[in-house]
């Protein structure tokens, strides 16, 4: 099983270098006992309350590799402190990765209170997905009701389905706007047809179109 080791201390003091080395040595031993293949050792000096950590961002990127099944830490506070810890626990667990700690000499045992918060976060995230899908469906239904025909207007329908398109379909943005859709509804509708586009991008491109009309 592939694993990543994450070591962290809170300050840049030279005295903390010993702590980093000790964490790494103990975690390598833990990996050896569990016969893990360590693909990366991340050593970091940063506050646990800070989410913007180079090492942590690297960790979250690496666990996207589905072959990475475990993250080894000294204890859960090495991931983070306070709300940052909960957020990072959620991100890691959501990827199907198991956490192992020296403190538990094996799989990390999450406290009842943290487990409850993580369950709530998961429920909220699921409802956010449902709301997002409802917005997409409502935007598409409204556009079609107002005469929008995606099978005629959108290019390459059925080709590379589900993949992001780099080009922003300005003609479709203009047409949908004329059908009285909001920028949010336009973005949701176009995402439903495979365009990776945000409300802000829709608004910006439409404004550019209007500004160009004024110049002409």
Task: Provide keyphrases for this structure.
216 residues, five-stranded mixed β-sheet, alpha/beta, single chain, 5 strands, 8 helices, 53% helix
Task: Give a written overview of the molecule.
The protein is α/β, with parallel strands linked by helices and 216 residues long. The protein is built from 8 helices and 5 strands; from the N terminus they run βαβαβαββααααα. Helix 1 (16-33) links the parallel strand 1 (2-9) and strand 2 (37-45). The protein is elongated and about 65 Å long. The termini are far apart.
Q: State the shape.
A: elongated
Cα distance, first to last residue?
63 Å
Order of helices and strands: EHEHEHEEHHHHH
Number of strands: 5
Helix content: 40-55%
Uncertain runs are 156-166
Radius of gyration: 24 Å
Strand content: 5-15%
As laid out across the biggest beta sheet, the strand order is 2-1-3-4-5
Give the overall pLDDT as a whole number. Answer: 85
Give the quaternary arrangement of the chains.
single chain
Could you give a short account of the major beta sheet? Answer: 5 strands, mixed
What structural class do the secondary elements suggest?
A: alpha/beta
Tell me the number of helical segments per DSSP (H or I, 4 or more residues long).
Answer: 8
């Amino acid at each position: 099983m592939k694993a990543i080791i994450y070591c962290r201390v809170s300050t840049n003091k030279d005295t903390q270098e010993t702590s980093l080395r000790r964490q790494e040595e103990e975690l390598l031993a833990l990996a050896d006992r569990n016969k893990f293949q360590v693909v990366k050792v991340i050593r970091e000096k940063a506050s646990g309350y800070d989410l913007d950590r180079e090492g942590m961002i690297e960790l979250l990127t690496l666990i996207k590799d589905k072959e990475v099944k475990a993250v080894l830490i000294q204890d859960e506070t090495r991931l983070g402190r306070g709300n940052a810890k909960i957020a990072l626990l959620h991100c890691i667990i959501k990827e199907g990765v198991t956490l192992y700690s020296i403190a538990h000499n094996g799989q990390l045992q999450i406290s009842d209170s943290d487990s409850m918060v993580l369950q709530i976060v998961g429920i909220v995230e699921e409802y956010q997905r449902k709301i997002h899908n409802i917005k997409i469906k409502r935007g598409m239904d409204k556009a079609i009701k107002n005469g929008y025909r995606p099978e005629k207007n959108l290019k390459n329908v059925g080709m590379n389905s589900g993949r992001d398109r780099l080009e922003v379909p300005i003609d479709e943005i203009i047409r949908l706007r004329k059908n009285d859709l909001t920028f949010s509804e336009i973005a949701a509708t176009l995402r439903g047809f495979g365009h990776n586009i945000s409300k802000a991008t829709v608004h910006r491109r439409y404004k550019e179109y209007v500004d160009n009309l004024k110049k002409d």
